[in-house]
Request: fold
Amino acid sequence: VLILACGLVVVLRAPASAADKVDFVRDIQPLFKERCVACHGEQKQKSGLRLDIKAAALKGGESYGAVIVAGRSADSAMIQLVTEAGNDLRMPPDGPRLTAEQIALLKRWIDEGAVWPEGVDSAVAENRLDHWSFQPLRTFPEGLGIDHFIRAELAKAGLTGADEADRRTLIRRASLVLTGIAPTAEEVEAFVADSDPRAFEKLVDRLLASPRYGERWARHWLDVIAFGETHGFEVNTPRDNAWPYRDYVIQAFNADVPYPQFIREQLAGDSTGVDAATGFLVAAAALLPGQTGKDEESIEKARQDELNDMVANAGGAFLGLTLHCARCHDHKFDPVSQTDYYGLQAIFAGVRHGERPITQANDSNLQERLKLQERLALVSHERGLLEPPAQLGEGAPRRPGVSPRRNIERFPPVETRKIRFTVQKTVDDNRHEPCIDELEIYATDGRNVALASAGGKPEASGSYDNPKHRLVHINDGRYGNSRSWISSTVGGGWIAIEFARPESVEAIVWGRDREEKYRDRLATQYLIEAQMPDGGWKVIAASSDRLSPGAQEKPLPEELSEADQKRASQLEGELADLERRLAPLWGESVVYAGRFEPAPPMFRLHRGEAMQKREPVSPSAVQALHPEFRLPDDTPEQARRIAFAGWLADPQNPLVARVMVNRLWQHHFGEGLVSTPNDFGRNGAKPSHPELLDWLAGEFIRSGWSIKHMQKLIVMSACWKQSSGPRAECLAVDAQTRLLWRFPPRRLEAEVVRDNMLASAGTLDLRMGGPGFSVFAPNSNYVRLYNPKPEFGPAEWRRAIYMTKVRVAQDATFGAFDCPDAGQPQPKRPRSTTPLQALNLFNSGFVIQQAELLAGRIEQQAGAKRTDQARQAFRLVLQRAPDPEELRVCESLVEEHGLPALCRALLNSNEFLFLP
Ligand code: HEC
Ligand code: HEC
Reply:
């Protein structure tokens, strides 16, 4: 034994004897443990490197990648770092340097192949996917509901729920939560008297159908994504055309758009004509060009910040993950690598801050334009019929040569659902990709059935993608180079349009640039085909019977009769006139919903630094989450966003439904089942009712992702209808009311308080949509100052959701009530109580003014008797009658200080300010 022991000691002491191979466990692992693992182990992974787990060690660190290159110590960064003297990068950074023997040993180990046996690691990489929110949704037997889960948790704590609240409380609670506006006294009375067992359900249905509902809910969503109507940063100039996005959100909630569609529209609404929705992408603050430094680094840095906000907003809002934490290093808590993060940036790589023209919002010229367009189609069709028909097959060419401006193809009527135009050659020896500004296809009754507005769907072999040249321009009804399609193939490519239904077509009109500014890129050889019911293609016109280009650009065909000549020339004149009259009617409305450019290649940035590009990354999402998602590098810009939206809404993705139902729960109870609504990762909170959360998420998906369905379900539960009164024995166990042994009462949000003051005073203006109103006096300094308006009038009496959201500036009165200032996403508002709030409510010009207007309304309705006035004041503000004691106090208050004083007191009462 002694000898053996001695032998062992000898072996330990002399591992490096040239004959012996270095043994990892014996020679290297102890060295790592002693000198490295404190910074490269379980607790810390400096520079992303771990030396206590084989796979992680061989993968390497953030700066150098693989720091151990088997067989090549000279190429291994690890050796350089432990060797280089006097270098502040040397490893370990503190304590004595490694000895020459230790370094020699490391070198030899690497040169001998860096053999690291399996199963000897001193630590196990934790599985970051082993976290509740990444697990698939649990499934449950049928017949369960919200109350089942709530009662089960209450029972575990020895608690019981409360009785149902009284009817007045119920209608006030439901109205305030679902619409943000209290019921009128008449509505309260009708509900209290309604003996129908379905009375409450009818009420809930009515509230969910109210347009006020979308206005209420939209506010929360706008908080979540930090929607603002100024650019932020010091300059903070207005973003005048951001409001259509707010209107989109309100309409989407009112229409109960299924959640996957809501996601897709916000990420890629430009693909389906819901343009304002992409305001989501650019909701955050941004530096305008000209506000960053001129040098490349400042520009790149500002761009990185923009992309970061896009990733952060999509991550926070839809996934409940802090994806932006992986900008500089792999996420320290969640399974999100830096590569994932930059893969997500690549999804948004072509999205730029800025306005873009849209045709739908507030298009006041629409009617007039549609009329002219219809006329233009009829004229163009009639003109087309005066053209000689295309001749297929042999024979001398007799049709005019192609013209950049306008070419007519006429052929016998053909029944088809799809027309294809294939370019075979272009001018200038095929130097460029062909361009077509518009393809008009006329049915026998003179309609242009190609138009997108008529349901025509374009498709192409490949398209240039930039603001002027886009596939959708081929059938948007607009002419000119700046609204044209360009193929992605030099000298060729095809474009096809599928109609909404089969049509009998007989003429096609196309051009390269009807505005006659450009003559390049003109198709000189082409083929036009119609698709047959069996899917095959039939040629209906071609360039083969045309004279050579430009050989005869005569305006009118020669062989027409004199009468037809005259008619054709009249029609040409009318066409020119219609084009001229149409042009200004496109009067673009613009919306701050992002501009789209071809996506540049993206790279991982070392430590998130804009100038430190590393390997390229493809558009992708979080690789650890299912289903797998990675797009080819050449995926066009818009297709990236569409695909990402699809990935988010995949029912396999366990986060999206959970995160959204949690927001709904939070809206109804004041606190979510998960109290960190934007962080479902390991650093976030655990759910108070994990099974309920999963049940709700499952129900959300089963309902076709209906938000209104979920809200109805929540509001109809016994849990939500409970009274909110405190019970000492429950408070003792669960003071936070996390287990929901009562309905948790809470102060109303600033916006709700303001809206209801206006509603009580009878001054609330319920006009929906459009640009908002400002509570700040205008000024036009370079660096904007937002000074409160000294006085408010009817223009400022719309619902608070329409108050123009100025970043980092608050309304003088209600800003003190935890209103987010759109500086940061605010998925959950804090609820503070400060003296300033009480002072503001009591003394602000706004409240005093509304109290006076309310007093006027009361006098008008109730006459001069104090008792009647006090009763009416209670009805209008609190929707109930005062009790005798209240009545007595109020009468004397009015006596002494006047009716406005009573109004002011009621508008400041807890009963008015709290959700019961
Ligand atoms: C006191 C903490 C500490 C100790 C101990 C330590 N390191 Fe480091 N190590 C760091 C830090 C910090 C960095 C990042 C340095 C930088 O890039 O500025 C780093 C970076 C590295 C890198 C580069 C990783 C990459 O690709 O980014 C290697 C290799 C490395 N260390 C090896 C070692 C080895 C081998 C040991 C033990 C012999 C060791 N370190 C001990 C703190 C430590
Ligand atoms: C702008 C760059 C940047 C961003 C964004 C960033 N970090 Fe870091 N973080 C660093 C740097 C630099 C270090 C120190 C070097 C290191 O440990 O790799 C660090 C270290 C840490 C550490 C200490 C880890 C250790 O091993 O000592 C934690 C924890 C951490 N970050 C969490 C986060 C979280 C959570 C977020 C998102 C909210 C985040 N980081 C976002 C740059 C960033």
